[in-house]
Design goal:
binds zinc ion, single chain, mainly alpha
Length: 110
Amino acid sequence: MTEDLTKKAAEMLLKGATLLSEPCPYCKGVRVMKQGQALCISCGRQPEKKEIPKQSQTEETSPSIEKTLEKKMEILTKELENEKDHEKQQNILKTINSLLETMGKLKKKQ
Ligand SMILES: [Zn+2]
């Protein structure tokens, strides 16, 4: 089940979704958001559409592993967008999947 969610999240990211900096209110999982719809990749809940990613980020923390992962995710998403080779697309998708998994684990620790 979780794998499906991860796939769905990866697909959403491909279509221009962004990662939410705020964790899921239900399970603290990583969420992706597209057109005002947030999807939690841990529990699969899609809360109300009102959620708008906040611009004001807390800058007090030094570059964290999470930020690094988020940046990597951005790069990968762009790479995937431009990649025409199917095999390479698969590889990028795999990396995205494991990134999402890692991020999920990190959030759960908090
Ligand atoms: Zn959740």
